[in-house]
Amino acid sequence: MLNKKDTVCAALLRELTGGTLPPGEFIPSRNQLMRRFHCSRTVIERAVAELTNLGYLSGRQGKGTIVTSPENAPGKIRKINVVSPYEAKSFRSPFSCLLLDAADLTMPIETIASDRADGECETLCQLDSVSVFINPGFEQLPLMNYLKSRRIPLIVINREFNGFNRICTDVISGFKEGLKLLMTADDSRLSLISRTPSLNYPYQEQRLRCFYQVCAEYNLNVSPDSTLTAPFTEPQNDIAAAGKLFRNLPARICVLNSDLLLPLLQYAQNLRLQPGRDFQLLAFEYSANAAGIPGITMIRQRYDLFYQELLRFLDLCQKPGFKEFISVIPPEVIIN
Q1: Domain membership flag for residue 336
Q2: Is 271 helix (H, G, I), strand (E, B) or coil?
Q3: How far is CA 248 from CA 11, 182, 238, 252, 253, in A?
Q4: Which residues of the chain have pLDDT under 70?
Q5: 200 and 290: one domain?
Q6: How far apart are CA 327 and CA 310, in angstroms?
Q7: Rounded Cα distance, 2 and 78, in Å
Q8: Which of 25, 272, 306, 307 is the most exposed place for a label (fewest CB within 10 A)?
């Protein structure tokens, strides 16, 4: 819940940036603002002081407060709020590239757990801050839309949510490069193991859609008999149904989730099947535990480039005329 000062700031900022209060005009008097917002003079003075510090207003002794020109109020960012599903101590993996250095950026950085982001709305709505949402779920869309309505600079990392600034992976190009390696001239059959789309996996629908799109383009045959899609609430137990994927050897299997890769390999080992000899695997996520195993190709997202693009966004969003930032980064294909 926003306090009264932030509510007044937000309302005035909408008028300042929307043209209701154009540059060179005086804002209403303190008494008028007090009556309008039903608050004390102290609240009004604090709100005006904050907007003045941000460069949107300029006080003139004995004459009132005037609206500055847009070039004098470029939206200088003084703080970064990172909303992440990962605890601060585990933030280095797998997003070490996004562990921003406060000293390097010369501004404070606060990490907020995704499950308590709604309760930190006042922090996220600070006018001189920017919000970075890492791997947000659908349940965070209302908060993100609210911040957008408040004109708080915001960027989404690793989710392709339309209407928001975002940095994400080019899923189509990843599948094109990876599936090329599984193609053979004499056999178009391909097996799939994947989680079903759900609120806990907001990216899964897009992955499946892109996978089938590329399969159609390459004339790859993925039949229901060679497909295993399930919630996989207990992967070690649920993976037993993967037996049908190994009916025709040598098999070619695409795995869309990294947490299914090792249980699948363990299951194959129990059947005395060997990757590289009896089957080929394409994993659309990188797993360090599978690195170096012959017969496994992995598609790794370029988080190092994510970091570079995030720094570019932080620079651009502070400049006049900034409207939208979308960066789609091709992943890297790793062949063992």
Answers
A1: no
A2: coil
A3: 65, 15, 21, 9, 11
A4: 1-2, 60-62, 69-75, 86-106, 185
A5: yes
A6: 9
A7: 20
A8: 272
